[in-house]
Each structure stands twice: as structure tokens, then as C-alpha cells.
């Protein structure tokens, strides 16, 4: 491999879920695809038990107003040195009004309990020239305590995601980048569970629909991702949208992503099951079947992880959800396992 530590850094995460508990990972590829992914049940990649040298995960440090590379520091395994992210203008950012969080919050394990908290944590990082996925917990704690709060709108979130995308575009350098696009399931993906060895840009907004995702793809059109993961549609179903509307939006999403990012792997992820009586899992399965066809027709990849989350009755496994819809930490561990396998296959392909 080009870097012997990339695979180890990406996969040594202490995942507690046994491989035998994860069903077959099904990936439908376009006919023109050169990917030959065969990720079968129990085939989670095993890393040899060799001792891995210590890696400095901070890479960049806070220096007043912008990122600066740490002196004499080593880059994250598998990454090049990151170009400094320029200072961002505060134009368009919400005004600060009052303190967000009490000083007693734990720095070593910040527990976010609302979208407002997540938003202001990310905004605080941006105002110092950082991206929240690149800041350690100690720094996030101090940033979080220094910001104010106000009533948030959908447009606030769109503005924040646009600023984060701009910062990554300016500071990506030679690093690899993956993007998550979707609704609250993507938005709440824990940053510490994202596969390592590359940059991540989270473009999820709570409550968003396939129509909303379609309208904001331009926010990251200037970015150079290797992979874009798309998951949306559950809020369409909750709001009464028809299957045709969801599928039509997905086709447009894939086409626009393909036009804006011709060299990027577009991965359409299956809509996940729920435990909500008003949402039919059989309908979700039907839509997923159609999404697989759309992905194939439009030159994208389809990642079917629906069955990874289902119990014997076809509902979301109770331990993987907090409320029948959103994912628990265990649920994100399952999703992470799928992403790790894809990221590993991409790494193999580059060698």
C-alpha cells in the first residue's frame, strides 16, 4: 500500500458489534463501474494485530483566527499536510445573544442534546477558522462556551453548511475528502465515528427532504470529494410525499452531482427502516429497489444497508434507534462499519 498505516488508522476503531451480527452488505454498481466490491456477511476487514505507531490526530491547532500547521507534527495517517484554512468572514452568520452552555460540561466527552447545540458548536469552530470534525474535544469545549445562541432556521443551517464547504474547499490541499449529504441521520453522525485518514464534510440538515437536498447541492460544488454519500427520503414519507416525487428528486440529485463532480464516486444509500407505525417498511423496501435502479442508470453506486438495521419482523432493531427513527450510538456503529469497508476498498483501488 502507498501508506501502511492508512488501513490501520481507518479500521482500528474498537467496534463492538460482531461481524456475524451484520447481514450481507449489498452494493449495486453501474455497468460502467470498475468497482468489484464483494462485502459478504462476516467479511469485515481484519487488521493484523501489529503495533501501530502513535499518530498525532490534532494535525492543526487553534492560533487566534486561522488554522496553522503544528510545528514538527506528523500528519494523520494517510493524509498529506493540510493547507491552512483562511479566516472566514462573519458575514451572514447569526448574531450572538446569550451563553449557550454551562461551564460544567465535560470537555472529554461533550454530550450534544439538541440541534442548536450542534449548530453553535460548529459555528464556533468556523469563527476561529476550523472545521468541527477537525477539532479535539478540549478545543470544542472552549469554543462551545464562547458562542451565543438564537432561534435557528433552515436557512441558518444552509448558511452554516455553505461556510463549512467553503472552508474545506480552501483548505483541503492534497487530502482526500468524503461528503455526507442528507437529513438528521447524516447530520448527527458522530464525528469521532467517521473513518479516519481523510477529511469529512457533513452536509446533513435535520428534517430535510429529497427536494431540500436537491436545492442545496451547489453549496459544495467547489469541493473535490472522492466520495459523496447520499441518504434522504424518510422525511418525504413523513410529510406525505409520493414515491414518484422521491424517486424523481433522487434521479435529479444524482445527475447534478455527476455533472458537478464527474470524477467522484456517488453512493446512493438505502433509506433505513423505522419502528414508527405510520411509516411502512414494505414501502421503504420498494423505494429502495427503485433507488438501486436509478443509481445504476445514472452511473452511481447503490449501497444497501437496509437489512443491517432490521430485526426478524423487518423493523428497525430496537437497540439501533433512540426513538424508532433516529439512530443510537450502536446504530451509528453499524453504519460506520459499512463506510469503513467502502473507504477501505477505495484505498485498495488507489494502490
Description:
This protein has about 350 residues and is an alpha/beta fold. Helix content is about 35%, strand content about 10%. The strands form three sheets. It has a six-stranded mixed beta sheet with strand order 1-10-9-8-6-7. It has a two-stranded antiparallel ribbon with strand order 2-3. Helix 2 (about 115-125) packs parallel to helix 4 (about 155-170) and helix 8 (about 245-260) packs parallel to helix 9. The model is unreliable at about 1-25 and about 30-110 (pLDDT under 50).
N- to C-terminal separation?
Answer: 6 Å
Mean pLDDT: 73
Helix content: 25-40%
Query: Ranges with pLDDT <50 over ≥5 residues?
Result: 1-24, 29-109
Q: What is the oligomer described by this structure?
A: single chain
User: How many helical elements?
Assistant: 10
In spatial order, strands of the major sheet run: 1-10-9-8-6-7
- Beta fraction: 5-15%
> Biggest sheet: strands, sense, closure?
6 strands, mixed
Helix-strand sequence: HEEEEHHEHEHEHEHHEHEH
